[in-house]
Amino acid sequence: MVTQQRPEPVGGAIGSALRAVPAALSAGVPRFVPRFATMGRRGRLGWEVAAVVLGSVLVAVLSNRAQVATLTTTAPGDLGDPLYFAWQLAWVGHALSSDPGGLWTTPAFLQAPDNLAFTDTVLGYAPLSLLVPGGQAGALAQLNLAVLTAGVMATVGGYALAKALGAGRIGALAAGAGFGYAPWRLEQVIHINVLSTGGIALSLAMLARGNGWSLRRGWQPGRMSPAWIAGGWAMACWQLTFGFATGIWFAYSLGVPMVCWLAGWLATGRRRLRRLPRRVLLAHALGGGAFGLTALLLVRPYLRVIAAHPEAVRGEDWLPLFSPPWRGLLTAPSTDVFWRTRQLTWRAGLSWPDEMVLSPGIVLLALAVAGVFFSVWPWRRRLGVVAVTAVLTVLAMGTAFPGGGRWTYLPLFHHAPGWQALRTPGRLMIWVTLGLCVLAAGLVGRIYQELSPRFPRPRTRTAMITMACTAVFGALPATAVVYEGRNITPHWHVATSPVKLATLRAPIMLLPSDQIGDYHMMLWGTEGWPVLANGNSGFDPQAQVDLRATALTFPDAESIAELRARGVLTVVVVRSRAFGGPWAGAADAPVTGLRVRRTDLGDAVVFDLT
Fold first, then answer.
1. pTM for the whole structure
2. Contacts of 486 (CB under 8 A, 6+ apart)
3. Which residues pair with 219 in a beta bridge?
4. What is the domain range of residue 172?
5. In the beta sheet, which residues pair with residue 600?
């Protein structure tokens, strides 16, 4: 009897080819490699974490060599918002080391109360601020290191979340690459608060692991861990310290599932609660309480600012400016190497490309779409991820969605707590990207599962090399994602102050003064931290608008009298910055009879008003 030979599966064929690796290749591999397979769970996890973190750091450094080479002298992206965040990071380190109680009132804005809360704070980088010395060079170093850290954390966070959900190591690589190297991040390099999203994914990963739940296998009560739950809530508290631009939506991402779980418990019967260990419930209670307390402490100065400055609240009229059309969700920034010239017309068609080029990456999107049909995730849970991602995509369009967002974004904007403080719907792409990463990880994990050779006990060096070769093949999607996210971000040289401000009588006003230029003046103030009349932040306080208007005619009798009345003792006119503006002739204007002492220092002319 002749039996028909069954064709070998594709995965088996590749496995056979890989098992044919010459013995000479494995001869030089250290004996430690096969021992990795025999390690305990904690040992393997430790080595895995170390490998992922070190790999992420290496890729970040190689991808941003220009930034690494000029840490103390340049700012990434432009000379606007990055200089503000450099100043803020330096101030946090200075305040925490000298006067923690005065953290929220900085020397800028003539020491207007709580002026640090005029926009998002990034207090989560306080350890970095304390470790790196101050001054302008230190401030720029803190900013550049924070940008690099944000990228590494996002990559590690994406990996951790996909791994915790059950995608496997290779699938998790694709998720980490997608979350850390999405093209939209290149445009947001000027907003370190928006880049700092790694804690979101890490917190969700820890909470999923601690609750014994994965997208692949569902709930497994035996795998619950109070320690992981506590760590997840601690990470959530830390993430909240990067500001409410991402923090409000993050709070919803934690609160909504908790409310749904509680509603399900009430609907299906309370006896299920008895199956949960008390330590698990205690970890959730304490962790959730700590998260709420952190939010309360952080929001208090912002509430005081809103009460004192009603102009800080921006209404519905601002939303169209920050609402991207559907094309914007597929358009990469001009600093993306691959898409720089390929999407010129798409970028030209956007009313404000700075906030509307929000592509998560075409490679990632293609992997996610394929992951809808072929994945390690079960069908129902997979469709749940698709549904949530689709809803978030609609919300990310804000008022650009058909109907002007009347039935999508605007109801949340007007009625959801905290939502009205968010003027940029497009930043919901953070969560859209996370959903796409999960779908892509499911696809890559399934492909690797099908192609991976089956070794019951892969303890030999040859077996380990075979699996490593398969892993390299499986890592190609992650490589493609990183390749698409390559950047040519400009790194702008930052000029130093032409005069030592700390030697002058404060309060000091530097001219010219405008919204963007004041960022530079504030950064100069990190040398000694004198009180400055200059200041700019998330909004323009009316007092600051009036002060700039008063100084437009300086040096004349009226402007000098008004500046004195506001407490300004010294005015510095910077010639190189005043060229062509309203203060072009201020440095050499006559001051006879104005009771002003002028000192010409070349580029800086100092007017003593005392």
1. 0.89
2. 63, 336, 337, 338
3. 213
4. 47-63+148-259+276-295+328-344+352-387+421-484
5. 605
